[in-house]
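subagent[fold] <- orchestrator: predict structure for attached chain, return tokens only, no commentary.
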Amino acid sequence: MKDTLKIQNHEIYISDTSVRTLASECSTPLYIYDLPALKQRMAEFKDHFVSNTLKTHVIYASKAFSCLAMNQLVSQFGFSLDVVSGGELYTALQSNFDLSRVYFHGNNKSDDELNMAIELGVGTIVVDNLMEAKRLVRFCENPKHKIHVLLRVNPGIEAHTHKYIQTAFIDSKFGISTLNTDEIKAVIDTIQTNSNLQFDGFHAHIGSQIFELDAFKAEIEKICQFVQEFQNQTQIQVRTLDFGGGFGVRYTDEDQPVEIALVCKTIVSEAEKQIAAYELSVEEICIEPGRSIIAEAGYQLYTIGDLKQTPNRNYIFVDGGMTDNIRPVLYQADYDFDIATNADAPKTKTVCIAGKCCESGDLLAENTLVQPYQTNDLLLVSSTGAYGYSMASNYNKLAIPSVVFVDHGKIIPIIKRQTYQDLIQRENLIDQDLFSL
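subagent[fold] -> orchestrator:
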């Protein structure tokens, strides 16, 4: 949502808050979320994922960015919450989120995590495989209420994204192939042996950063065709279909994502069409936006440190790097960069932006255009709201930055910056005699 930025006196303002003020009051590196832009994005999903014939359900994929304040915002909009670990579930609990509106995903939930979900009264568990179904049945003897179950299936739709974020190709680690109806039936039969569990339907997710509406149409038709054949073979009724997420966002000008209103309307209309055509018993459809809610409302702010020129590169060194945004290293992800304290100048400098980690590959960008710059300028990276903080690490014992919301000139801290003491708080000194030679 870079179009929400303003420039005054050469300097970028995010929701009426200057980058110099943010750096001065919060230090850098810093994760920043434009709260009005974030709320606008959520409202788009709420307003447009609606149907006249089906129940519709928006489930926020919290892996994109999970914290107490974000969960509060998700709750305020009436969305449900997708969690994939005990830690994300605990965060939901501590944010007073209604756990009956939590969907617990994951391909290898531990016994402790399953028991935690049951004990806390999670509303829906998305089962990945037969072994997990058997464990769930064994543990679910006396839950607080009936637990709904979806089964993740793999429709074999390969979206045109990075291979690490394709999730529905035939050998994916996620779900059971829709071609394997015997195993799917075995999972459902297992679930139905426990009266505390209620099988509702199927979940599918075909990948991330998808820009083609046809991919979602293909997914919906493939799933609906599978459901019809499955219902005819087994007489098992399906009331819920969850089509996952993966809606593309704009990282650079080369990205051309479809507007959320059109994505939502396309999924709803295609689902209505296919459910009617295949005469299915489906009553409810769900989607799971994560990145597409949070990414473009988020920014990272760095301070430029040393500068270095080699025969083939002009280096800008910043005070963060792969520890606070690993996506360029992991996925070769691209971003737009701006010298935030010289933002109205033309971009005439080709630079390599490097982090401070002791890794040659710690590069946020190898060749990117920025405005003229100097040491102590501030560098702003756009569309970093998804997976930056979630995937942050303490490599090189670097502290994870703080996170703030900005709202029309007001800075709202939501996560504190780690201290050096935080970095060692779980470590122990041991008896020196153990080291004697």
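orchestrator: received. Logging for downstream: The chain has two domains: 2-33+297-424, 66-289. The CA atoms of residues 22 and 342 lie 16 Å apart.
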